[in-house]
Amino acid sequence: MSEAYIVGAVRTPVGKRGGSLAGVHSADLGGHALTALMQRTGVDPGAVDDVILGCCDTIGSQAGDVARTAWLVAGLPEHVPGVTIDRQCGSSQQAVHFAAQAVLSGTADLVVAGGVQNMSAIPISAAMAVGTQFGFTTPFAESPGWQARYGDQEVSQFRAAEMIAEKWGLSRERMEEFAYASHQRALAAIDAGYFEREIAPVGQFTTDEGPRRGTTLEKMAGLAPLREGGRLTAALASQISDAASAMLLASPRAVEEHGLTPRARVHHLSVLADDPIWMLTGPIPATRRALARAGLSVDDIDLFEVNEAFASVVLAWAAEVGADLSRVNVNGGAIALGHPIGATGTRLMTSLLHELERRGGRYGLQVMCEGGGQANVTILERL
């Protein structure tokens, strides 16, 4: 049986909205991560079979297949192709899945997977906004097929996060405690230098900008809710951010031919979907099925990365799958570190790999909620 090995993983620091990366062209931002990946692995970039990058809102600087453009602006070989994919928040995690599947099938030996997103330059849902110029509203409104199946219900991540908080009985105070812990964990990791090995500085920008040293539970309690009468506030949601990240996946043949050292193998990969109106509950059934298919239990997993789109998402997931929160997002999550949508999947996986190595853990599981009610799950086995 073939294997898909991870031989390299790198990311830029995550910039906050309007911060250090706001003025960086998306292709150059992605190209920076690709250059760093090639340099750190020592692989001849001409041997790469394909480049797969996740990106959402592919307009402006992110249009025209940014994966291909990022590779070219980095000065890398013209004969290497690139493709950009969109599975919403899980786009770059899906890029890893496609890369691993290519390697496992024997149709490729070296594949780059990653993602890029400059949310300061291209705001979230910008592609939908552009569509209004052509008479369209959203992907759901005015579709007879959608209306026949789901009616005219509001399709919103904010509504879904509130629905989850209500269904699972998550108080605002409980969610604020979780969000505060995310910031404290991220700051502790930064201060201890845990992220330094995985980050490729962009000029003088070396450190994630999102974590707030001055935040307190009292400050969080003073924020207005995102929706009238709701429990969720900006402090309980992921931050709008800018970043790029990339990983190199290799076959056993490529490992031997290029003298590479596998750092982990893709033990399991899958994707599952749930109700698109609830939207953010997909990680629960997706995790259960992934563990069953992998022949593992929650207790077998040393570390979890569960994207903190909202505090309610992670807390409901933990309650349902029985995961110990002390092993979940141990160095902070998107509430503190940010959520550069297209890049987050491989940002999380890069951090997960490095933390498994630091702790000497064996298995790491990553899952993300995604638009349309979807959820990717990846289980890594550190080697």
Automatic annotation (TrEMBL):
Which keywords does this chain's UniProt record carry? Acyltransferase, Transferase
Query: Which Gene3D superfamilies does this one have?
Result: 3.40.47.10
- One term of GO molecular function: acyltransferase activity, transferring groups other than amino-acyl groups
Which domain of life does the protein's organism represent? Bacteria
The annotated active site, in chain numbering, is C89, H339, C369
The Thiolase N-terminal domain is annotated at: 5-251
InterPro entries, alphabetized:
Thiolase (IPR002155), Thiolase-like (IPR016039), Thiolase_C (IPR020617), Thiolase_CS (IPR020613), Thiolase_N (IPR020616)
Q: Name one Pfam family in it.
A: Thiolase_N
Instruction: Look up keyword Transferase and say if it applies.
Output: yes
Q: Which residues form the Thiolase C-terminal domain?
A: 261-382
Which family is this protein grouped under? Belongs to the thiolase-like superfamily. Thiolase family.
Q: What's this protein's name?
A: Acetyl-CoA C-acetyltransferase
Recorded source organism is Cryptosporangium aurantiacum
